[in-house]
Amino acid sequence: MTRVHIIGTGISALTLARTLLKGQLGKTLRISLIDKARAPGGRMTSRRVKRAGEGRSGSDEGSVVVETGARVFQSTTPDFRAQCEDWRAAGLISEVKLDRLRGVRAVEGGEKAVSSADGNDETWWEAGKGGWTESLIPALTGQISDLAGDRLEWFYNTAAKPVHSNSVPTFEPPVDAGRPDIVVYTAPTPQIVDLFPGRDVPKMEYRKTFALIYPDMRVSSHTPIYWRGPCSALSAISTGILDNGESRGVVVQAEPEKLGVEYDKAISGDEVVKAAFERVMREAKLDVDLGIDLDGKDGEKTDDTATAQSSESSTQRWQLKRWKFAQVASPPRREPASWTTDDGQLVMCIGDGTSEHGGVQGGWESALVAAKEIEQWVERGAEKST
Ligand SMILES: Cc1cc2nc3c(=O)[nH]c(=O)nc-3n(C[C@H](O)[C@H](O)[C@H](O)COP(=O)(O)OP(=O)(O)OC[C@H]3O[C@@H](n4cnc5c(N)ncnc54)[C@H](O)[C@@H]3O)c2cc1C
User: Is the residue at 307 inside a domain?
Assistant: First the structure.
């Protein structure tokens, strides 16, 4: 048995585990997936946000699904497009109509770019029912569990610690997971760069962002579901997803410095940040009806059920989240980084910063490259020992 530790449970980690298990080594692997988060998905994690006055408490009824990371992603190559078509056929993702996207390359000029200059496909996708956390991600974890049976362990709330083995960087196995033959790290972070000086790993930085969520907003039919950089002070506007596939609820994202406020709640409380958001939105004179009455009464402009709210429910009519996420800071490497420790352990760094395309597609692609490298490495080891 070859022991593999995969650090992370985002799209890169799940794709790697699934590809290895379906490949020639499948039956000879014992895999541990290790994540410091409490659930899988990484930067494809959705949250349910309650709408004012709707649904029973403790149920998902009346909630809007909002994405904390990628709201949509693109497939630009035939291979990834084929993968996306399979996911679509299984009801895990759906194609985004391009008139629902603004500020992204494919819709500049207003027409679907079926093929780009390099002849590649440019199709955009969004999550199926319930967002990534209830569609694609559990489908992948389920497939992995089915393929591996009892040769698989999941570790959540478990941060893998970088260490040195005779000056070569690797990761300490979590208690109970045993020493692995292969460690794959799927989320290069600033700590890795600091701890592994001189190693050519992709550099990531943490971006701090505010997400102002209006779960009650009923958006007009021409509102984009995703709008990148609608004005220089905002990073993106996206709409939430209802279980019937309709969009409702608005999520506006911006970095603190663009709003002129501090990320620290003690310095800039939620009301201060909300006021800053609304000031920039008012000034930007956004050319779509988001259903936000910036002059005061949230929701009443387009949501006629939102009148006469109790003070308790009115607190649910907007929520501010302070999110941090890792972003590639330097140009991505074009391939995974890997090295072998003195005692023969293979260490790899893969993820969206280690492929040509970046984003969800980049994470998926890096995992396929890594799976091939791992198969070759195991094969070479087997040849040496015979
Ligand atoms: C706001 C936002 C908008 C985005 N928009 C788009 C978009 O429009 N299109 C697009 O293609 N992409 C977009 N992305 C990027 C996309 O979400 C990522 O590229 C992709 O999800 C990365 O997947 P990954 O598996 O490589 O990394 P991640 O999803 O980050 O997974 C890494 C996992 O590793 C875990 N981890 C990290 N360090 C440790 C440790 N020491 N020990 C244990 N676990 C650890 C993390 O908890 C995480 O679960 C966006 C991202 C964000 C945040």
Answer: yes
Q: What gap in Å lies between CA 13 and CA 6, rounded to an integer?
A: 6
- For residue 121, give Cα distances in angstroms to 79, 114, 360, 375: 10, 6, 15, 29
**203: alpha, beta or left? (left if phi > 0; alpha if psi -120 to 50):** beta
Measured from CB, residues less than 6 Å from any atom of ligand 1 are 7-13, 34-37, 42-44, 69-70, 72-73, 159-160, 186-187, 189, 325-326, 351-352, 359-361, 363
306 CA to middle of ligand 1, Å?
35
pLDDT reported for residue 297: 44
Among the listed residues 274, 273, 267, 263, the one whose alpha carbon sits nearest the alpha carbon of residue 324:
263
Indicate whether 181 and 297 sit together in one domain: no
Instruction: Identify whether residues 50 and 27 lie together within a single domain.
Output: no
> What global pTM score does this model have?
0.89
Q: Which domain holds residue 368?
A: 2-38+156-203+330-385
Ordered mean pLDDT values, 10 residues apiece, the chain (386 residues): 95 98 96 96 91 65 85 93 97 90 64 47 89 97 97 94 76 82 83 67 82 84 86 91 76 95 96 94 82 53 33 60 81 77 89 86 95 94 76
Distance 44 CA to ligand 1 centre (A): 6
Same-domain check for residues 92 and 238: yes
In a domain, 237, yes or no: yes
Residue 151 lies in a domain: no
Q: CB under 8 Å to 73, separation ≥6 — which residues?
A: 124, 125, 359, 360, 361
CATH number of the domain bearing residue 338: 3.50.50.60
Check whether residue 315 and residue 336 sit in a common domain: no
Question: Residue with the nearest Cα to atom 53 of ligand 1?
Answer: 69
